[in-house]
Design brief:
Mean pLDDT: 92
Order of helices and strands: EHHEEEHEHEEHH
Low-confidence stretches: 168-179
Number of helices: 6
Helix content: 25-40%
Distance between the termini: 20 Å
Number of strands: 7
Oligomer: single chain
Radius of gyration: 16 Å
Strand order of the largest sheet: 1-2-3-4-5-7-6
Length: 179
């Protein structure tokens, strides 16, 4: 399998990101929403994943106090179960830790058990339900949290997850591969 490269989301990625969003989300964000998110600077952090120079996924965070909130994470259907989402989550957790965040949170569709499994691997546990959170279908959201992400036990978890990933190829630096 080709290595997954993860790097910062740039404006040049937005048409690819928006296309993935359109295919994967019942109520997708527009290109303009992503553009505004990128304009938020240090309040937000977005990354894209690529395989063979093709953008195949993305993820984002916003920061509030000492908490990082995963805004979205999405991967092309034809490359799922190949570690792309894990690569994206590692990059997002790294960004949270670089900003000295102590907790990670997100909402996930109640019926999306695959995503819930990914998030559980990252130490996120169910903490509540937001009724009819997702529109237009009214599906509930499961609220998940991981606390003490700055502590040694979480560092050990992250190291184990990082150990399951392939290293990006030495012939194509990550930033170059995302152009």
């Amino acid at each position: 399998m080709t290595a997954v490269d993860v790097g910062p989301m740039r404006r040049r990625h937005l048409r690819h990101v928006a296309a993935i969003e359109q295919r994967n989300q019942p109520n997708p964000w527009s290109t303009e929403v992503f553009r505004k998110e990128l304009a938020m600077g240090d309040q937000r952090h977005y990354v894209v994943a690529s395989l063979d120079r093709r953008v195949v996924g993305y993820g984002g965070l916003f920061f509030a106090a000492d908490e990082a909130h995963v805004t979205n994470l999405s991967v092309e259907a034809d490359v799922r179960r190949r570690g792309v989402a894990t690569h994206l989550m590692v990059a997002l957790v790294d960004a949270a830790l670089e900003r000295h965040m102590t907790a990670l949170t997100l909402e996930v569709r109640a019926g999306n058990t695959a995503a819930q499994g990914l998030y559980r691997r990252f130490g996120l546990a169910p903490a509540g339900v937001r009724r009819a959170y997702y529109q237009p279908d009214g599906e509930d959201a499961l609220v998940m949290w991981a606390h003490d992400i700055h502590a040694p036990p979480y560092a050990a978890r992250l190291a184990r997850l990082r150990g399951t990933l392939e290293v990006p190829s030495a012939t194509a630096p990550a930033e170059e591969a995302l152009r």
